[in-house]
Amino acid sequence: MPASAPATPPPGAARSAAPTDLVVFGGTGDLAMRKLLPALLLCEKDGRLAPTTRIVAVSRDGIGDADYRGKAEAAVADNPSVLRAGAVPAPVLRRFLERLHHVPLDLDEPGDGWDRLRALLDAAPGGDAGRGRVYYLAMPPMLFGRICADLEANGLAGGESRVVLEKPLGRDLESAREINDAVGAVFSERRTFRIDHYLGKETVQNLLALRFANMFLEPVWNSRWIDHVQITAAETVGVGTRHGYYDRSGAMRDMVQNHLLQLLCLIAMEPPSSFDREAVRDEKVKVLQSLAPLAGEEALRHTARGQYSAGSQGGREVPGYTGEPGADGASSTETFVALEAAVANWRWAGVPFYLRTGKRMARRYSEIVVQFRGVPHPIFPGQGAAPSPNRLVIRLQPEETIRLHMLAKEPGAGELRLRPAPLELSLSDSFAVRSPDAYERLLMDVMNGDPTLFMRRDEVEAAWRWVDPVIGAWQGTDPEPYAPGGTGPQGAHDLLARSGRAWHEGEMTR
């Protein structure tokens, strides 16, 4: 039991979670140590964990509670998210560590592992009406069905217990259906939470507020006023030691099928009838179902794929993708994808949506750019025939900002001249509370049984249904090499240049 009462949540903090046993399969793995435990510690710091909530790690490591707590303490000590949030008081850290337990369990040779897990869960602190139980599968997706079946066989999947599935959910539509069928045989759709951490980002949720709480945008949020939309997720790092995983997925499966298509849905969706868990997800599915198919020659014409080569980045030499540790020297896996998508409905007919993601890029940032059309007739002197159109830039990372690029009169006497003058909303400057990171928010939601920001089965399968023909069209082709520290392969720039457009390269906002 925690040694002391949790802190009072600060004003504006995310809601607290109900009393829960959170069981993390893969509890000593990279995801648990880098993301889940730091997020849970920050929830502890903000007073959002119920006093009797427990965190149970399950892994093959033959260690006890004390050793696991030591590993967890070392992991959170230098975690960037924890450091950005400020010092963690010693009583808070102690209280958090006391919540942690570890159960050794090898799926191939379980021994008494399942019995030990069941005994620990059955010994939950009493007095918590409606105490929840959540199984977080921070494991390879091919194990999801097996773990769920084992949970059921050991009497651990009953009641209102829930399961969280990490991405990627399969590698194509067929495998995604197999996983969904296997999980669904044990956990109903209502109890299944497919997580995409991009949907937990504060700015992504602010996108919903921006669109549906501000009337001035709705009349212009359509093909009459918007020229095109760009969605970019750029990384400076390579694949490093993750080559074994990445070579089976590539940028299309790793980023486009989930993260970028989710952002496209939020930009393009119709207003839901309410901020209800199913109403929001219904509208997202409609967008995916409206995507014009890309297959064969059309897919090759409207996509570009690349693979980073060896070179210099940030003043140091870096290997190419095929030179990374454990790499297949002949791999044709893409580390960069750019594509042009079309949402075939009345609102968006004729508006291209450009999606782009890549590794070893010049800068790390994720953003959405809504480019408006130009004025129909320029009247100001010295501006030529095409003054800069307005654009809305929604930055997701590293900083979280919403910036509207407008034109204003340049100060001074003389000829009236225009120049860009952005209006900017910085979330960190505008609100005097720390913004919870994505995993903090989503972990709280799943503990409270709120699936609004999680993906539904039909949503995942609709995304795969659109992506699979694109991947199929690439078979037998090689990705275009691109230098590290740049803006990707030339083919990505040609994709926009054919229509007289160019990528927005993510200006600094701070």
Automatic annotation (TrEMBL):
Lineage top rank: taxon: Bacteria
Record region (Disordered): 306-330
Keyword NADP applies: yes
Active site (UniProt): H259
Domain annotation Glucose-6-phosphate dehydrogenase C-terminal: ranges: 208-504
Catalytic activity: D-glucose 6-phosphate + NADP(+) = 6-phospho-D-glucono-1,5-lactone + NADPH + H(+)
EC number in record: 1.1.1.49
Enzyme class: oxidoreductase
Keywords assigned: Carbohydrate metabolism, Glucose metabolism, NADP, Oxidoreductase
Job description of the protein: Catalyzes the oxidation of glucose 6-phosphate to 6-phosphogluconolactone.
Family designation: Belongs to the glucose-6-phosphate dehydrogenase family.
Name of this protein: Glucose-6-phosphate 1-dehydrogenase
Gene name for this UniProt entry: zwf
